[in-house]
Design goal:
Length: about 130
């Protein structure tokens, strides 16, 4: 099972409440390293105009990847988020908190995507529990 580090363990009294500074996996599990999931609509492949919808679609796409590997969002150790504009971070944070109540460690990076329709991408590392 994942053990989440608390902010006080790293000497910070009041870190961001929506994430953990780190997660430690047990030696009795395998790890899943995902490729990036983007916010295209699962049925059509189209990209919604707004970043919140793209983030939600990407989370649902990631859910399918996690489930195919016999794991879930509760077992994510690290999430890496990419946004195409810094103004999108608050919208992405809102969606992120819905899918990651366990608050894994996380990074969010502003990037330039090759496709201008793309506003959000994510990848993660998750533990796969031993059977």
């Amino acid at each position: 099972m994942v053990r989440k580090l608390e902010w006080k363990e790293v000497g910070i009294s009041n870190g961001p409440s929506f994430l953990s500074p780190g997660c430690v996996s047990s030696k009795d599990c395998d790890l899943l390293f995902t490729s990036g999931c983007v916010g295209n609509a699962p049925g059509t492949g189209e990209y919604p105009e707004d970043v919140e919808s793209q983030a939600r679609n990407a989370m649902e796409n990631m859910r399918k990847v996690l489930e195919a590997a016999s794991t879930n969002f509760d077992r994510v150790l690290k999430a890496l988020l990419f946004v195409s504009d810094p103004s999108y971070v608050s919208s992405v944070n809102k969606v992120y908190q819905e899918y990651f109540p366990g608050k894994p460690s996380r990074s969010c990076i502003v990037v330039s995507f090759p496709d201008p329709k793309l506003k959000f991408e994510m990848e993660c590392v998750a533990e796969i529990p031993a059977n």
